[in-house]
């Protein structure tokens, strides 16, 4: 019921090219610290948001607006989810020479299930959290995976992001693997990264619905970000 009400109040649609500025802002909220970590290994003054904006504006690529869903309140975008077939990650990095910091994060990418639909980023504006927007976006991603005949949805989440982990567990996800990430003074996470999965055909029973209602529906900076 809560999810249906949120979907009516904050309708979800496919992103358009005109949405790239807000997509970049929301993507930065979800995974900007990780992207900034990578970028600053090349340029110590680099910022994540302009890079997200450039990638989101492209017609192709994993961060393209074409791989995003947005939640709206009137004419304003209040939430975003970036999701795509996980196998696209392998295609993007095939033959690429990774930087030292990308190599450090490689264990996360190596956990990927190429048969799954990967939720890369999900974020909701602070002003619209705890209103069901995140849960509605997550449901839309699962539905998109179902329409494209994927057996499961997967996501990466930092092991120290306990609020987001609780949200995903309540939504029916479970841990599929754990990537050990070496400590680095510029990486604001410890404990490594989890790969979580949920079967697309999974239907929440009453006990799961109650669990989801007890956790923050739009946990601060829900992170489900790959290594860019």
TrEMBL record:
Keywords: Acyltransferase, Transferase. PANTHER family: ACETYLTRANSFERASE, AMINOALKYLPHOSPHONATE N-ACETYLTRANSFERASE-RELATED-RELATED. The keyword Transferase applies. SUPFAM superfamilies: Acyl-CoA N-acyltransferases (Nat). InterPro entries: Acyl_CoA_acyltransferase, Bact_Acetyltransf, GNAT_dom. This is GNAT family N-acetyltransferase. Residues 10-201 form the N-acetyltransferase domain. It holds the Pfam family Acetyltransf_1. GO terms for molecular function: acyltransferase activity, transferring groups other than amino-acyl groups.
């Amino acid at each position: 019921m809560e999810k249906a009400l949120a979907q009516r109040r904050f309708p979800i649609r496919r992103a358009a090219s005109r949405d790239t500025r807000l997509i970049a802002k929301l993507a930065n909220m979800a995974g900007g610290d990780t992207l900034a970590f990578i970028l600053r290994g090349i340029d110590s003054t680099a910022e994540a948001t302009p890079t997200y904006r450039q990638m989101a504006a492209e017609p192709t690529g994993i961060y393209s607006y074409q791989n995003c869903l947005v939640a709206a309140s009137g004419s304003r975008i209040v939430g975003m989810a970036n999701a795509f077939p996980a196998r696209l990650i392998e295609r993007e990095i095939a033959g690429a020479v990774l930087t030292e910091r990308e190599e450090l994060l490689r264990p996360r990418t190596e956990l990927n299930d190429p048969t799954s639909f990967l939720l890369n980023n999900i974020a909701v504006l602070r002003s619209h959290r705890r209103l069901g927007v995140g849960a509605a976006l997550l449901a839309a991603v699962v539905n998109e995976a179902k329409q494209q005949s994927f057996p499961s949805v997967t996501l990466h989440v930092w092991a120290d992001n306990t609020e987001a982990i609780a949200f995903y567990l309540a939504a029916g996800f479970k841990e599929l693997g754990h990537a050990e990430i070496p400590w680095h003074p510029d990486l604001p996470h410890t404990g490594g990264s989890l790969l979580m999965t949920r079967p697309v055909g999974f239907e929440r029973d009453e006990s799961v619905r109650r669990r989801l209602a007890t956790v923050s529906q739009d946990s601060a900076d829900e992170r489900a970000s790959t290594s860019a």
